[in-house]
Amino acid sequence: MSDSFQRSNLAQSMKAQRAELEHALTHGPFRAHADRMIEVGARTINVLQIGWTLRVKRSCETVFMRLPELLASGKRLANDLRNLRDDGQLGVSWREYIRDAGERAILLIDLLRESGDLFLEHEAAGCQPVLFYEYEKIMDGRDLPVKSNFVLLRIIPLQDVTIDYSRRRPFVIIPPRAGHAAGVGAHEHDSQLGVALREGHPVYLVSFRREPEEDQQLSDVAYAEAAFVREVIRRHPRAPLPAIIGNCQAGWATLVLAATNPDLTGPIVINGSPVTAVSGNIGDNTFRYIAGIFGGVWIPMFLSDLGNGVFDGANLIHNFEMLNPERRLFLKYAELFRDVDTVRESFLATEKWWSSFCLLHENEICWILENLFIGNRLGKNMAYLGSERQHVDLKQIRAPIIVFASHGDKVTPPQQALNWITDIYENEEEIRLRGQHIIYMVHDDIGHLGIFVSSKVVNREFRQVATTLEAIEALMPGLYEMCVKDVQEHDGRKSFSVELVERHFKDIRALNDNYRDEFPFGAVDRASELQAQIYHTIARPLVRAAVTTFTAEASRSVHPERLSRSLISSRNLVLAGFKSISEQVRQSRAKARVDNPFLLAEALYVQHIAQAMIFWRELRDMMYELMFHGMWNTPLQHYFGGRYEVHARQKTLEELRVRPDVQFALKMIATGGFIEAVIRMMALLVSDRGGIRRDRLDRWSRVLTRDQPFRSVASDRLTTITRQQTIIATLEREQAIETLPLLLDDAEERRRAYFGRTLYTRSHCGNVAEHDRPLKAVCSGA
């Protein structure tokens, strides 16, 4: 019997152990980890499938949409050639076209020779700023305690432009240092500089020399820019704080400047700036994948070592141009060949800026890659300046931020320009409670360079921004979208209607697809760090030992972007005679008739070649995306880069209440006077209506700056009151309305608060809408 008992006990023990093992596998950490890996793998397969489908669909749509047009043009060409043959004029038209095409070819070669000479001349002069306006140097970064290659320029207006140097807000425009020399957005008459000057504002430009200073870092650049802004403030003591305009890469640099010097800047305008450079949508925005495919930061380190510690900006321009290779390699010259008689001046003016390449120190390019294009640390509020000594906290910015993006921008799509807002702030209530103003605009179709240089955009969107800055500062804190609409007036002239509409985080998230696919860049960032450490330890000493000043200069001179221009200059003896030949051609120029069918055949040939190159580019981009997600979006890489992920938990309004500044504002709910009451009423009304029109915003701005008692209050004090009353109106709305009469203990003040220009136009209390309860509260106590 004892043996039977032991056998039964052993069987039960084994059964219990098996059950315990099954429970551990199905409910323990192992199962949770396995489930997570399976979920990540399924999501990766889904991403690859969606990316493949979207790109194939877009490629097919592009081909089939253009096919009817190409077939119709081919049919028309065949009919024209048939008619010419029947009329016996086919040979005449052919000879006419051959002469026209030969003359255009000669003029094109000579024009390229001129652009090559202009490139060499500009390089020899040190790639000076390419500006339409005259300028004078105000400050030089070399003269500062912390040296840099940046300089401050004052733009000299044209004679017919009047500038108010005493009271109008100065504009400080910062062009991008992303490969080109200074000049984008400033080398044409209809530019950001031109708009600001025509509005009577003093304008300054933060320019830079081609070569950086020794061991220059981004912290040195931020120091110089802060010193420049202080100098502008000193020159205009009676004017409002300067408005800072940052284009492209200078946009995030402007945010860094404002975050580390929150007391210096007025409104900030960033145009097409990739603050969250790893964002984008599946099936689009291929540019962000390059670092993950071709290697991390060790590649720029290697190129900087070949350049004797200096990174060549021509590499950045080459990457930018290869984003659309059909334009760089073919369409640009095909269009120039077609219009060579009319585009000479504009082409040379553009090429002078486009062909001026700047240099960056290794410290600068590595910081940019590690904190933006690979690590995304600035977009996660985790970036530091000066060897990790200074935290760049974008929440410390107190000036209004205006962000301009475009759906047609393939370099900086709206996701990269706007996602940092939802990543850094907990919600729109936090933006409001911090007293911050963030206004964004999203254009429908303008491209990346068009944001800065298109006269249409400059005279429409940028002009509305430039003329609305004072009103924006008077706006209640929060997140808004600026909507600019065309209005056709009765006399045929066009004006614009501007409205600021209150937005929420869901509106920004709606610009993204359902896949926030930034987490693979965590693995890319970690792998980049490891590769950089290996290169720095093993290969860098050998590379640096083999590089001299001569080899560094030689490597830059044979860069494809420079070599392709120098080879077509007058230094090429083959092209030396084209100058005299082109002059003879211009004197005896014989253009083909517009209806010559061989011109149509030429256009059809260009379209076919361009379409083939576009199809190749779409195929290349699809392979890039599939390769990136296949490499870095796997369960193993997800685990590898998991520690680089930041999972922000959205705080509730109740959690935001515990902030000391919020608690202080709420304690002041029944304290104050006429100023506090009127500002609180405006905060409540704007919150009710979800936005404010331009005319009402201008009226409110005039009240704050010109009417008493607001005019006598310092601007920083007025900003503090506005923030406190916004906190009260957001967190304690009902009590804010009930306590309004306590702030207006005098009947005359109550009447002024209601009937004055400080609010929307009303005739009497009986016309107050039901949702305008702040006005009813004042009326009831009057």
Descriptive account of the structure:
The chain contains 33 helices and 15 strands. The chain has an eleven-stranded mixed beta sheet, with helices on both faces. A two-stranded antiparallel ribbon has the order 7-8. A two-stranded antiparallel sheet has the order 9-10.
Write the layout of secondary structure elements.
Layout: H1 2-27, H2 29-87, H3 90-124, E1 134-140, E2 150-156, E3 171-174, H4 192-198, E4 203-208, H5 218-235, E5 243-247, H6 249-260, E6 268-271, H7 290-294, H8 298-306, E7 310-312, H9 314-321, H10 325-338, H11 344-354, E8 359-361, H12 362-373, E9 384-385, E10 390-391, E11 401-406, H13 414-424, H14 428-433, E12 437-443, H15 450-453, H16 455-466, H17 469-473, E13 478-488, E14 494-502, H18 505-509, H19 520-546, H20 549-557, H21 560-566, H22 578-587, H23 597-632, H24 635-640, H25 653-656, H26 660-667, H27 674-689, E15 691-693, H28 694-706, H29 715-731, H30 733-738, H31 740-743, H32 747-755, H33 773-781
Parallel strand pairs: 3-4, 3-5, 5-6, 6-11, 11-12, 12-13
Antiparallel strand pairs: 1-2, 2-4, 7-8, 9-10, 13-14, 14-15
Helix pairs in contact: 1-2, 2-23, 3-11, 3-22, 5-6, 8-19, 10-23, 27-29, 32-33
